[in-house]
Amino acid sequence: MKIAVLLSAGRHPVSGAAVLPRMEAQAIRLAAGLGEAIGLHAGPDAAAVREALGLGLARIEHVAIPEGGDPVPALIARLAALAPDLVLAGRRGQGGAESGIVPYALADALDLLLIPDVIAVTSGDGAGTLTLDQSLGRGALRRVSLRGPVLATVHPDAPPPLAYAYGRARRGSIDGLGSAPTLTAGPDMAVEERPYRRRPKLVKGAPTGGSAAERLKAATGESGSAAKGRLLVEPDPEEAAREILAYLRQIGVLAASSGASSDASTPTP
Amino acid sequence: MTRLRRDPRAERTAIQVAGAARPRYDRTARRSSSGSGRPRRDPRAERAGQRVVGEARPRFDLSQVIRVEGPVIADTQPRATTAPAPPKILIVEDPAFLVAVVPDAPGGRLSAHDRQVLGAARALAGREGAVALLTLGACEGPGPAGADRWIRLDDGTEAYDPAGRAARIAAALNGLKPRHILFPESLDGGDLARRVAVRMGEPLFTNAEVVAANGLVRPAKGRRVEQRIAPGLLTTVAPDAVADYAGPPREARPVAVETEAASPAKLRILAAARVPADPATVPLALAEFVASAGNGITDLDTFRTLVAALRATPGASRVLCDAGLMPRHTQVGASGTVLAATCYFALGISGAPQHLQGVAGCEHVVAVNTDLHAAMIERAGLAIVQDAQIVMPALLRLLAQETGETP
Ligand SMILES: Cc1cc2nc3c(=O)[nH]c(=O)nc-3n(C[C@H](O)[C@H](O)[C@H](O)COP(=O)(O)OP(=O)(O)OC[C@H]3O[C@@H](n4cnc5c(N)ncnc54)[C@H](O)[C@@H]3O)c2cc1C
Ligand SMILES: Nc1ncnc2c1ncn2[C@@H]1O[C@H](COP(=O)(O)O)[C@@H](O)[C@H]1O
């Protein structure tokens, strides 16, 4: 199976130093369990992704594009030539706009199937089939079996990256593939940049209007669910149990049983 | 030539209002018999006289100056509260433009994030615009959440086909021609937004933390800078960044849009099955529903059976973890795990501040405790003051009964 891992030049979120984004390192690990993988990077400088050699890739292909150019056309051209069965990318870049649109643009241009937020890849039973586990959040998964070629983006819940090995990093090679002919600017948006300003966290259930006293109440948790809560003092245990189950069903955390009374399954307006 | 001697006691008993359990006095009666002769002002009664009747919020007509001469007592009696009139539904008849919202609506309910996106859309729409909600299949309560129009596409097939879904939504959006389109930046919503953006060939402004008519703001470069832009066509809205719509309910008028039937795509996805999280093994921080035991629980075997029967993730307070009765990784609180659960079920937990910190993000709390004054009881949406030791078996019995009824 031919696997390509898309590598971008990331920046560490805290220090700002050049690093390989963690999700791409995780992608290398997923690829390592399946077969030989090559890395693919489009950017002005290949040194940005050298770290990926130590994390398990033997070979990286580098398409040089000018600073600030759009990597998508260069990546499309190279991937069309490679025709891999599986392309792995991070779900979001790191250190740039962090929009995560590159994989979607590639999948659209190359007519690849795109499966987002993958945490495990195994080869399926049939020839050319793959089974991907997609994270649905909160520990739930969707197991998708499909026929390749496929582009999958990696979710942070995937297994952690392999340890960096110096020897492997020395042995690996980066092949320059010449440069993309023209500078194509990305889909540009006239953004205005300034230093990040933290915004106050939204207080759940706080009234947008209302007096200061009401907002304080909401912030200290005295309003909201607590204020309109129901209090049963010394109920019959059976009665208490019924109330609890009805409440749990109403908010939808407990599956309704068909024997349950109808008012228990009516959701909140 | 002596002045009549006053007898304050007798005066007070004369003006005492009969019938009240607490002694109450009608001091307006006194002024007619004695005193300076100048009518005494009663600011409260004057104020009450200025009140405009029939409104839920108190409103006062200050142009009226009313001298109320009647007894004050009559006013201070609790008045029958008029039932609040059903809120008026706001209608935007002829909107200047549309702001479309494509929610996740898992299971046909708007999630908290969806409501925030609707709130953001409402802010963009302002007075002239209308918010159009675009859902695949049913959706509950779009009007109160702030939608003026509701486009309901049919569900289509159950099979997992994100590309086909994006194609249908893009087609509907092309038919609708909104000025702005908002998506939640969630797992599903973010994926859909990017597919739609690529399909429409439009740039996408992702993860907006501020949504206003004069600009959108998103963090970039690892939150070291923020980028500002005038609202464009496609935007995804970050979670917990924008407030829900809080105004009166809106119309959510059903609208139909013509979409050309999408050509069936090549089916390359052979099968897709949802593997639900196993509540017993899912990490506590990710769990949806946590049932927790505290120092008030002595019968931990029943507790464990109950947790399994409710399909909840087990949690515990620090006391139980310190005592070795529950594993350390189940500890909820400041020095344990901070939960992101939808519902927290606390059995025999007092609700120490260190424990409540771990529960701060939970939307619903159910508490069973013998102590009426426990902090957990105060925090709970459903609080039951009862011995947890007898409520747990009752719950188990009820659950067993239900499963027995439905084989
Ligand atoms: C630095 C620091 C960090 C801490 N971090 C944490 C933390 O992360 N998590 C944490 O949980 N704690 C933490 N604590 C401990 C915390 O302060 C409390 O001591 C602890 O949460 C109390 O646990 P509890 O509610 O189970 O026990 P108790 O306070 O003993 O409460 C037991 C409750 O059960 C009720 N009860 C008794 N019998 C019954 C019955 N039969 N049926 C129903 N109810 C009954 C009682 O009325 C009482 O309200 C921390 C403390 C410190 C100092
Ligand atoms: N210049 C690039 N070269 C190779 N892969 C890239 C490049 N830019 C982005 N990618 C891939 O696309 C993913 C999402 O990036 P982005 O769209 O920039 O958030 C990244 O995690 C990479 O896997």
UniProtKB/TrEMBL annotation, chain A:
Q: Does the keyword Transport apply?
A: yes
From the UniProt entry, list the residue stretches annotated as the region Disordered. Answer: 200-235
- The yes or no answer to whether the keyword Electron transport is present is yes
Q: Which SUPFAM superfamilies match?
A: Adenine nucleotide alpha hydrolases-like (SSF52402)
- Annotated Electron transfer flavoprotein alpha/beta-subunit N-terminal domain ranges read 26-172
The protein's UniProt keywords, in alphabetical order, are: Electron transport, Transport
Family annotation (InterPro entries): ETF_a/b_N, Rossmann-like_a/b/a_fold
How is this protein named in the record? Electron transfer flavoprotein alpha/beta-subunit N-terminal domain-containing protein
Q: Give the organism the record lists.
A: Methylorubrum suomiense
UniProtKB/TrEMBL annotation, chain B:
Please provide the record's keywords in A-Z order: Electron transport, Transport
Q: Where is this region: Disordered?
A: 1-53
Electron transfer flavoprotein alpha/beta-subunit N-terminal domain: which residues? 99-279
What SMART domains does the annotation carry? ETF
Q: Name one Pfam family in it.
A: ETF
Compositional bias ranges of the Basic and acidic residues kind: 1-12, 39-53
Transmembrane ranges? none
Gene (UniProt): fixB
Question: Which branch of life, at top level?
Answer: Bacteria
| Name of the protein described by the UniProt record | Protein FixB
Q: Family, per the entry?
A: Belongs to the ETF alpha-subunit/FixB family.
